Every structure is written in C-alpha cells, then in structure tokens.
Here is the input.
Amino acid sequence: MSTPTSERPESGTVVHLTSGANKDVARDGRASRAEKIREQRRRELLDVALHVFAQRGYHHARIADIIDAAGVARGTFYLYFESKNAIFHALLDDLLGRVRASVVGVSMGTNAPPVNVQIRESVERVLAAFVASPDLTRVVLREAVGLDAEVDKKLADFYARLHRWLADALENGARLGLLRVANGELAAWAVLGTIKQMVQLLVDGTEDERAQRPTITAAAEAILDYSMLGLAPR
Amino acid sequence: MSTPTSERPESGTVVHLTSGANKDVARDGRASRAEKIREQRRRELLDVALHVFAQRGYHHARIADIIDAAGVARGTFYLYFESKNAIFHALLDDLLGRVRASVVGVSMGTNAPPVNVQIRESVERVLAAFVASPDLTRVVLREAVGLDAEVDKKLADFYARLHRWLADALENGARLGLLRVANGELAAWAVLGTIKQMVQLLVDGTEDERAQRPTITAAAEAILDYSMLGLAPR
Amino acid sequence: MSTPTSERPESGTVVHLTSGANKDVARDGRASRAEKIREQRRRELLDVALHVFAQRGYHHARIADIIDAAGVARGTFYLYFESKNAIFHALLDDLLGRVRASVVGVSMGTNAPPVNVQIRESVERVLAAFVASPDLTRVVLREAVGLDAEVDKKLADFYARLHRWLADALENGARLGLLRVANGELAAWAVLGTIKQMVQLLVDGTEDERAQRPTITAAAEAILDYSMLGLAPR
Amino acid sequence: MSTPTSERPESGTVVHLTSGANKDVARDGRASRAEKIREQRRRELLDVALHVFAQRGYHHARIADIIDAAGVARGTFYLYFESKNAIFHALLDDLLGRVRASVVGVSMGTNAPPVNVQIRESVERVLAAFVASPDLTRVVLREAVGLDAEVDKKLADFYARLHRWLADALENGARLGLLRVANGELAAWAVLGTIKQMVQLLVDGTEDERAQRPTITAAAEAILDYSMLGLAPR
DNA sequence: AATGAATGAGTATTCATTCAT
DNA sequence: GATGAATGAATACTCATTCAT
Here is the structure.
C-alpha cells in the first residue's frame, strides 16, 4: 500500500477498544487482529479514494486510480466496497456523521456557560468538523449534489436537520427574549446559508487564497457578529 | 421539433415571425431569415437540453435524450453546439449573464431613491433573475460545481464578482455611516451566503415544499431584515 | 467486412420484394436502399456470429471476435443487436422458424399424393431444414440448452409443437387404420427422439465421420423404416 | 456442512460409520478414518455442486454458491477438486459410469432368460440408471454439451459405446433371425435416439408435467413396442 | 488439512463525436 | 444545412484460483 493523503484525524478512533480487561477476547485474538487489519485497509482505501476524488472529481475518478494509488488489486477493492458509488457514500456518511455529532443543543442548566458562549462554541464545533477534513468537505460539497437520488436525500436530510436545529434554537431564543425573530424558519435558512458559505471559504480557495483564509475562530466570529448584530449600526 | 418546457421568458420572443411579407428586407432577407431560424433552433435545443439536464442530471443526460426530445438529427446538434459540455456552458452563461445584468450599483444622485430602497430592489432583482428560470438555476446550482475546470472558473468569477459588488457596497455604506462593518470582506461573503441560500429555497423543493416557498419579496425582505438588523433585539 | 461462412442459403430471400409495380415506392428509394444495406449488415453480423459461436462456443465467443471478423466497430454491433444474447436469439429464431415452416400437415384430398409419400416428404423437409444450416443447427443444439430461461422456453415450445404435430399425425393415422398406436403421446416422443438423433447425425461428426454420414434421404428412409416397420421381422 | 439435496442413493452409504471402536484397525485406523472423512466431504461437495448446477446452470453457478451451501471454506474446495470444471467432470463421470455399468450384454446361455426379456430388462436398467439421479441427468444433459472439448469427447465416447452395444445387439438379433435389420448402424442410432428422448421425458418437465410422466416400466415398454413392432399395423 | 483474504485476467456495454451522403 | 450510420475509447465489476497463515 502506498501512503495517501490521510487527512482524517479520527482514522484510528474506532480501533483502540481492546485495551482494557480482555479475558474473553483471548478466544479469538486471531479474529480481532484480522478485524483490525481489515479496518485498516478499509480506511486506507477511503483515504486514497478521497484523494483521488479530490484530484479528478468523482466522475473522472476511475477505480483503477484508486487501486493503483492504494497498491491493491482490483478485486480487493470490491472486497471492501460494493461499488465506486458505495465508497463515495461511505465518505459522505463519514463527514455528515461527524458534523452531526458536532452539533449539540444549548444547555439551560444553572451552571451552564452563558448562552452566547454556548452558541459560539457550537458554531465553532460545526466549522471545525468540516475543516478537520477539508478535502473531504470539498469533495462532498462539490461532487455530492446531483450525484444520485440517495446522495441527494442524505444531503437534504442533513441540511434539514441543521435547519431544524437552528430554527428551534432561534425560537427558543425568541421565547427567552434573547432574540428578535420575525420569521424563524426563514431566518434559520439565512443562518445556515451564512454557515455554509463560511465553510466553503474555510475549505476552498486556490493556493494563494488559502493564505488569507480566515481562521475557524474568525469565521465563527463573523457568522455570529453578522447574524446577531446585523450590518446596520446599533 | 417537439415542444419542451421553455421556462425561459425570452425563449420564444424571436420565434415564428418570419412567415409574412419580407420584400423590403430584400437586402439579405434570405440570410436574416436563415439566421433567425438558426437562432430559433438554437434556443429550442437549449430549452430541451435544460429540460433533460433538469430531469436526469448532466451526467446521466445523453445527447440522444436531447435530440430525441428536440426532434432533431444527431448531427444537427453538433451544428449548433460543439459538444455536450458546450451546451451546458451556453446555459450557464445564459443564467450568469442574466443575473449579472440584474446587479446594478447604488446611485447616489440627489433625486435617486433612498439607499435602502435601492438595495432592496437590487436584491429583489437578483433573486428574480434566478427565479425567472428555476429549472436552469437548479441545474446550474446542482450540476455545475465540479463539472470541469472551466465551469469552476466561471462560477468562481461569478461569485467573486458578486462578492466584490457586495463588499464595495458594504464599504461604501460604512464610509457613509450607514453601515456598521467589522470585516467587510467576510461580511460580504456572509451576505452572499444568505442570498445563495434564499435562491436555493426559492428554486428547490419537492412538490409540497413548493407551496410554502417564500415569495421573492418575502425572501428579499428576510435577507435584508436578517442582514441589516441581525437577530439580536435592538 | 470480411467474408465469413455464410452457410445460409436464404440470406437474400427476404429482399427481392420490390420487383413488381412500385409507383409509390419511388417516394423513398433512399430509405429502401438504406433498409437494404441495413439488412445486409445484419445478415453479415449474423453469419459472422454464427461462425464464431460455432468455433468457440457461445460462452467463449467474445463480441470482439464477432466485430473483428465482421470488420465492424464495436458500437456498430450494438446498432444491430441489443446484446450478445440477442444475436444468439436471432440465430435461434432463424433456425426454429425455418424448421417450423418446413412442417406441413398431411393433405387428405383425393388427388393428394399417397399418405406415406407425404409423410416421407415431410420428414425429409424437416431434416433438410436443419441440414441446410449445419453450423447453425450444431450451434443451437450444442449451446442453446440451458443458456437462459427464454431460450429454454423457445426450445421447449418448439419441441412441444413438433411433438404435437407428430402426436396428431399418429392419432389421425390410427383413426384411419393406417397406424397401430398404443400410446400416441409416448410414440410421438419416440419418433421425435429418432428424428433428433438423425439430425444430429447429419450435422455432427468429426471430419472422417462426415464421410460416412447418411444422406438426408437415407436418414429419412431409416426413420420411416424404423418407425413404421419396427425391428421385429414381419 | 449444510444438508443439500443428496439425490444420489449411494451418497450416504459410506458415511458416519467410523465413530465406534477402532482398536483392532490400529494398523491404519487413523489414515482410514481420514480417508473416510475425506471421501465424505468429497461426496458432500459433489452433492452440493450438483444442486447448485441444477439450480443455476453450470455457467451461472459460482464456486461461492457451492462453498456457501456446503459450509466450507474457499480453499477447501480446491483441496478436493482441481477446478470448477473438475467437479463437473466428476459428476459427469459418475453418471456415465453408472449408466455404463447398467449396460450388460445379452446372455445366450441355455438357462438364460428369454432374449426379449433380457432386452427389456437391459433397457429398463439403463433408464433406471439415469432416473436414479434425475438432477444429475438433467444437469449433464443440459450443461455438458459444448462445455469443453474433453466433456464433448466423454459424451461422444459414451454415446458411441451405447451405439456400439446397440448395433452389435441388433446384428446379433439379425443373425439369429430375431430381428429384421436393414441398416444396423443407422437403426442403432434410431434406437439410441428413442432412448435418449425417453430419458429426457423421465427426467425433465415442469411440476405439472411431472405428474403425467411415464414410469420407467412404461417408458421401457414404449421404447420396445415402438422399436420392435413399429407403428404400422401388423 | 482448513481457511479466506487477495488476486487480476477477462469483457459486455455505453455514448459522445464524426463524416459521408 | 440536415441527416443518422458508424465509430471506438473508456471502465466498472465478476469470479475462478492462489497461497500465506
């Protein structure tokens, strides 16, 4: 296997489980090892595929590119993924799952941090989840739309969920007198649009543009400043 | 030729006029007639292609689909467009051009309308330019990203231009004390993100979602309300 | 196009129709010519495919073999036949159709030839229909069974039809006192088995076996002698 | 291992005997046990393969189908059979061998049963040999022809042998004045065709056709009646 | 002996584009 | 201009077989 991009930090997160008490695990250390190797290869293929998709785009990426880069035989690819489409879905699920996990509700407990701080952190977390895998984010943002019905549905669901979360948050804020919201649904879409644009900014850009890219913190700051205070002088 | 969707308002304007008396156009009536017919066919092909792209997506759309729907021979297609890619570019240019044209600077003349009115109208015009061709907008938004380097460049330029326009406007507003702008560039991206999202909202959506779609005016209203006033109570 | 086997005598039989009065045919001599060329190519491909199937067997025959032998581009093949399977079906239909057409009922008219003569001629005609295209017969007999469900059905129908014809014939003969038939259905199968074996004999065989192959007449003779008189002395 | 069809009567005869006391077989009890187990597995694989071939046909049958059904690892298959082709050959040899064994010459001894009885029994034995393994017979009849050169040769030899046997029998019969034979060779082929057709009848057929299938005795009866007496009234 | 992960040769089919008529 | 038959490059996927453990 060659060494591909491997931008994914959580590549190994799933593996380190067998460390504690493992009396019954002795049973099939063999099996578990095989499992580990299998998982590694899967990750390798995912990483390589991501790289290839990023370079050539989904449609121009050939299975041959992936297996060549991974140093794996043709059939091996299909041992791990059903199809070219399937590996894209795996990548997509990966990103969407991670972003979803980064979204948490605002806690209203007495010793909870101030609401505005919570919100800022929430936004930062979401941005960070995307930016942690810029290639993946770029690939998903660029290639996923219109790929196939299932992908479309996944994306629609994903955005609908984010939208729901935002709309609920806005409504809560309004109820508490913290926010002034005319049309919660539309406003939530507006916020989502802002966030999406910032993600793109954080992740896209040619070489030289990348230099003047905002930091995650700056981007979150901008989102909140813009969303909360608006552009009109106060 | 069959009769396709033809969502484009200017689509039919040139059409079926040349039948009557054309004596005085003797100069080059022949040539001009041919020219007109040619233009008509071109439009027809564009309309049909848009329809096909909207139905099946760019990648799944076959030239055969287009010529079948247009009732035109295979070779004829290539008399009007260099390639499948070229007709997409034509469609893309069409939309981007129209939107670009809808963007006008804010006039500072003494008898010009109030600035906020001008801005509102500007935003509405942009939204309207997209919404005038919802299929086309949807196709461009869904299929254009990542299609090929040239398309990418066109889109990047287009958005960069919109961004520039917004950034300048914000800067002007700030200079005049009309706007409170911390980071003009970022803020402009934020506004652009909001607009893009609203366009998508106006143009996307399943059948039942379409019912609760905002009107252009409401969308523009939401954009301005959100952008100007922000969500925090004033 | 190269020159393949072309064992098929009726290759041109479908074409010679436009000879008589053709006032209205003037309309589209172009179209009819195109039609003719098309039909020729189709035949050419069928002939070549038969040759290839005969050489390598259906499963080992590659489309590449066929188009190489036909001197035709890959796509051209699919202009004429939907798939490799489809061209086999066309071949199969060809043979079965021809054999079916060779089967005629026995005429009972007063000035009709004697029944036994009619039967002999009928059997000879069937044998001749097979033997006229020995390669095709061999291919169908060798490759068709178990190829796919549809082929199986066609063959089953074909044999069922032959069986029906024989069974009816036997029954008629029995009614007229010309035949002694214990179990008409079984007897018909027995006759069919005899015929099939003879067809195989006429069509199969290695080079040197081919020398001692019976003639069609001898084979028909044998079939009738055996079927009618049996092996026991009379 | 799973439990497959196992239509073969001798399939289980060798099985599960070796569990009890095997002290006195100390010589090579180990080896013989291993041998027995091996043989058992081989049979199991043959049975399963036959089942799979019967269901999907040789070409559509995958090794995966066989090992899945047999509950055996991939490599294990190749410990018992060289290839997919090899297991088919084993099956084929099985059937042909059994049928060959069922063919015995007519005894002319003084206290031998009457010749006609012997013949009838011979035919019945052959039919029974086929019908004892209807699936296998069907598979061999459907899939073997045209599979590969070696299979073809085996079948040709097999039929040639049957033909020889029949031809000799006819000749003998003729010499003894028991039979009236014009062309012994051809007549033998005719009889063989009749037999083959009856075997097919006995073994083939859809569910409802199976009901009206003749018994072996009836089929043998039909063969002899038809072959000996012919269809013409005596 | 048994396992099953890995291999890689093999191929039917699609479809954008061309060009002779 | 218009036609549509012909082209052929391009590629995902299957599955029998191998071999290290």
About this structure: Chains D and B do not touch (no CB pair under 8 Å). The radius of gyration of chain D is 21 Å.
